[in-house]
Amino acid sequence: MDINAPINPAAGQTTTAMDTEKSPIVPEPHVTSSITHSTTPKPKKPAKPRARKSTTPAVKSSSAQPVSVQGTPAPAESSAPFHTKFPKLIFPRPTEQYNLESEEIFCICRQPDAGGEPMVCCEGCEDWFHFRCVKIPAKFEPLFDVYFCPYCELEKKGVTLWRRKCAVEDCYKAIEHGKTKYCSKDHGLKHILGKLNKSESTNVESMTITALKYSKSLKSFQELGSELPKLPKSDIPTSITAKLQEDLEKLEKLRQEQVASRKVLIKAKENMKLLNEMIQETADTPSSSKKKPKKLELCGYDYSTFSSSTPIDPESMQSNDITSLKSQYDAYKQYMDSKDQEDSTPPQTTLCFLDKKKCLKHSGWQSIISDEIDLNMNDIQKKSEKIKETMEKRVKSYTIDHFESLK
Predict the structure, then answer these.
(1) Considering the chain, what percentage of its residues have pLDDT values greater than 70?
(2) DSSP per position, 228-286
(3) Any idea where the domains of the chain sit in the sequence?
(4) Which of 28, 105, 267, 382 is the most exposed place for a label (fewest CB within 10 A)?
(5) In this structure, what are the phi and psi dihedrals at residue 70, rounded to the nearest 5 degrees?
(6) 234-269 pLDDT, tens per residue?
(7) CB of 151 closer than 8 Å to CB of 91
(8) Following CA atoms 81, 83, 88, 89 in sequence, which dihedral angle do they give, to the nearest 10 degrees?
(9) Quick one: pLDDT band at residue 38, thresholds 50, 70, 90?
(10) Residues 6+ away with beta carbon under 8 Å from 274
């Protein structure tokens, strides 16, 4: 069986060559897994109260016929999830973390570390699994990209992804940075020399002449095969990246919303600065009082803008009308200075007119909103880069499959 053959979904194989590099033939089903040979696996969370090992019988397939014993009614079909590769998988998963000897237990077998046996960490539940228990050959260890255990697959937390295997038949290392079909230059030369040795001398000569014919210089001839040839965009099916392109467009829309939110925040700061200056000018006018008025800096939180869940155009903000804001502040100050506040209704205001140092409710609101925008922008950028990287991997994988099919 060719280890480089595409995965067959009909046979229960859930990973495709388009998801990452080319997958090995392992019907295992998506974030980087951790492999260990250590006798001490990854530290676990504090243990829960010790429980007896579950005696629940294995879940049967829903397609299996119920078996009855004479005098006993046939059991009803189970509604528990069924894993095609692990038909005897107990569901829901056992939750014991320690056995009766106080040893930490792992895997679907709920047994301790066997001492040096290879184990892999699930990205969904962070539990560790023996290779033999999850039916993964030890030679596939270097090919893990992300691993999800059978339980997390049934819970739809993710699917196992594999890195593309080296083109040398007996090598199970991952390809080098996704740039070639080989894990190293040595294996690339080994593979090519093997191909040439199997070919007739006339074919080798014709191949060399063709390569020289299309090489513009000695340097370009020497660099043949150093990079993967690119297919025209028209030859690449849009279906392999259509869903990723949709996700990318959604992230771009979110990014534009965050850019607009930053513009709104900047505009709100400018409006608040103008209002504070206008109020200060009024307070600095000559009066009968000999006391110098205190410098006032209002909170300025905009209820109509930052309490709204929909994006707002910076040019349509209510706080842009400084004269209106000054009138609101005057009405608010008159109400606060009056002695009969209980008998009057407080005026409706667009902004918070409390002193910035005394407003605990909106303390540091400008920095909080700015930091939130920065975090959202960074998150969007990381997700976009990851999607673009996945798109490149899928295109490369399709390109390699295309040229290999021309043999």
Answers:
(1) 68
(2) PPPPPGGGS-GGGTHHHHHHHHHHHHHHHHHHHHHHHHHHHHHHHHHHHHHHHHHHTS-
(3) 1-42+83-180, 184-215, 243-283+294-375
(4) 382
(5) -55, 125
(6) 888 888 888 889 999 999 999 998 998 898 899 888
(7) yes
(8) -70
(9) very low
(10) 322
322-356 exposure pattern, b = at least 16 Cβ within 10 A, e = fewer = eeebeebbeebeeeeeeeeeeeeeebeebbbbbeb
Positive or negative, the CA dihedral 136, 141, 145, 147 is positive
Burial of 38 (0-12, 13-18, 19+ CB in 10 A): exposed
Structure tokens at 360: 């605990």
Q: What CATH number does the domain located at 1-42+83-180 have?
A: 3.30.40.10
Non-local CB neighbours of 264 within 8 Å, separated by 6+ positions: 305, 312, 314, 317
SS (H, E, C) 148-215: CCHHHHHCCCCCCEECCECCCCCCCCECCCCCCCCCCHHHHHHHHHHHHHHCCHHHHHHHHHHHHHCC
Question: What is the distance between the alpha carbons of residues 252 and 370, in angstroms, rounded to a whole number?
Answer: 19
Eight-state DSSP code of residue 93: P
